[in-house]
Amino acid sequence: MDSDRRILEGYSLAIDDGRIVEIGKTEDLHRRHSNVESVDATGQIVMPGLVCSHTHLYGMLLRGASLSVKPPSDFTQILQRVWWPVDEAMNYEDAYASALVASVEFAKSGVTLFADTYSGPNSIPGVLDRIYEAIERIGIRSFISFEATERHSTDEGWTGVKENVRFAELMSKKHDSKTKALFSIHASFTVSDELIREVKRIAEKYRSPITIHASEGLVDLHHNMENYGKRTIERLSDVGLLGSMVVLAHCVHLNSKEIDLIARTNTGVAHNPMSNMLNAVGVSPVQQMIAQKITVGLGNDGYIFDMFENMRAAFLLHRLNNRDPNAIDSYTILEMATINGAKLYGMQKETGSIEVGKKADIILIKPNLLPTPLTSETVVGHIINTVDADDVEHVFVEGKQIVKNKLLLSFDEQEAQRISQAAASNLWTRLKATPVQIDHMHNP
Ligand SMILES: [Zn+2]
User: How many angstroms does the Cα of residue 113 sit away from the middle of ligand 1?
Assistant: First the structure.
């Protein structure tokens, strides 16, 4: 994924002090570095670690849950009946447990960088420390944030912003940390212009990226039309939010004027195809955005953590939606899940590709079954159509191996599973004991 998008066969790379220091013919590198620790990657794919551009680690605790809620019939009801009651019930232990187990799954499936947004009105101050602690144990690179929202009250929104500021201040003193601060705003339909402006001002001070859900469901568009007479991206533009350090998640309901605004301001987009299908919100106009040179990354929105599945979903969704087998190609999908994700968060000089000078965030893939030859011509097709998370053999983050022969080295996987299962069953019990349904919300 370097600027020439080269695919090399018979090459090796050398890592020193966390960075890629040399890329060259295998014989040459072996001759010159005979006394170093090496990994034999014969027959394997060596590629940049995957980037998940938008996630909610705590989504992991809902996997398989059967919550006795009245079946939601649209996106707003999915939030009101499923997600917001879960947010209310989340506590600090749940935040830690979900961050731990989600990081295990990300690491084992070849994700080396992700951007997380946590939400929970009853676990705000200090929660990012717990999430940070969990992720550091696993050793992946990340951006983490608390999702500010005024859906209950104005106060709730500012408490959320404060938590991000507290964490950004803490991380500003830890330059070497693999975890970095992100500012997060839930969505334009749950926050005021004042809050958006203030988050933009503070995030610029800390040089941190900002993320917001934008026109995921029609509720966002309708809210902005009714209350401001503007479409979602028009309002975000007028309030001064857009810019190169801003990542808009979803962008499903856009018109061409909004796409122009995103392109003109160099704003980034995180596309979440599997979540969009799950919530039946619609299809994001990804090809139109790419045609306008907008950086589009790939996210899971807290749903399926295997990014190979997310890549495949994106690849198929746009073909079907456009009834065009050429709608999107494998290479574009791979860019979304690697270098574009890094670019969205200002990390393109550090990670997202295999290049001399970059951090060694690298994964090795050994497909369990290869029905056809693996060559430089077929490798991208294999990544999109053959490979699953289970095929990830080794994972390095900043040169440190965290997965070896498919086993996590940094933490006891069984222990992570035990912690998250206990948290999940407690959470489900609390949710069933006191069912909450949020039908009305404070209009910011
Ligand atoms: Zn999301």
Answer: 16
Please give the distance, rounded to the nearest whole angstrom, from the Cα atom of residue 28 to the centre of ligand 1: 46
The DSSP result for 40-68, as a single string, is --TTSEEEEPEEEEEE-GGGGGGTT----
Query: How crowded is residue 442: how many other Cβ atoms within 10 Å of its Cβ?
Result: 13
* Local structure of residue 388 (DSSP, 8 states): -
Note the pTM of the prediction, 2 decimals.
0.97
Encoded amino acid at 154, one letter: T
Query: Which residues of the chain are under the pLDDT cut of 50?
Result: none
Give distance in angstroms: CA of 114 to centre of ligand 1: 13
Residue 70, pLDDT score: 87
pLDDT tens-place string over residues 250-285:
999 999 999 999 999 999 999 999 999 999 999 999
For the chain, state the CA radius of gyration: 21
Distance 150 CA to ligand 1 centre (A): 16
Cα of 378 to ligand 1 centre, how many Å?
33
Contact status, residue 380 vs residue 334, Cβ threshold 8 Å: yes
pLDDT one-digit tens code per residue, 214-243: 999 999 999 999 999 999 999 999 999 999
Contacts of 75 (CB under 8 A, 6+ apart): 216, 217, 218, 219, 279, 280, 281
Centre of ligand 1 from the C-alpha of residue 421, in Å? 23
Place of tokens 């992946």: 140
User: How far does the centroid of ligand 1 lie from the alpha carbon of residue 216, in Å?
Assistant: 9
Rounded distance between C-alpha atoms, residue 137 and residue 107, angstroms: 11
Query: Could you tell me the distance, in angstroms and rounded to a whole number, from the CA of residue 246 to the centre of ligand 1?
Result: 14
Rounded distance between C-alpha atoms, residue 76 and residue 79, angstroms: 5
Whose structure tokens read 């749940």? 94
Candidates 11, 13, 9, 19; CA nearest to 398 is 19
Residue 56 CA to ligand 1 centre (angstroms): 6
CA-CA distance, 105 to 125, in Å (whole number)?
26
Q: Which residues of 296-329 are buried (b: 16+ CB within 10 A; e: fewer)?
A: bbbbbbbbbbbbbbbbbbbbebbeebeeeeebbe
Q: Tell me, what DSSP letter sits at residue 359? A: B
pLDDT of residue 432: 86
User: Are the C-beta atoms of residues 217 and 281 closer than 8 Å to each other?
Assistant: yes
Whole-angstrom distance, CA of residue 337 vs CA of residue 349: 16
